[in-house]
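Why does residue order matter? Because the sequence determines the fold. Keep that principle in mind as you read this record.
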Amino acid sequence: MLILIMILTVLVPFTLAASAKRATCRPNKLSASVTIAHANPNNKNDIAFRLYTDGISTRCPPLARNAAGNTAQVLVSGKVYECANPDATFSYNGQDGKIDIWVANGSGKFGGSAIVSPLSPEVISINLECQNS
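Structure:
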């Protein structure tokens, strides 16, 4: 029993250190740009945008295919949606105009947010922070 305890006291710190190393992002921040493609002033939850970041260029949300043609889907506040590239997800709150964005790539998982309003610039820059912890 004493030998087992000694082995565990040696192995556990190394195991924790190895998993802590895997949980880091390289780099700690990821720059992203958002371009608003569509924002309906009469319906705060009707928005579409393009996301550009390291190796990803995608439409959020993807166009819905229906009999009426290609239309943007109306979003439910707080729900997480996939972009056309499933490595990018987002949530949108139409009441305050906040877009939360998450991106997963070979460098880690990143997330950040921005506020969108009629006065927003054409291109919004966001720093996505490392989410691996």
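The domain at 26-130 is CATH 2.40.350 (AOC barrel-like).
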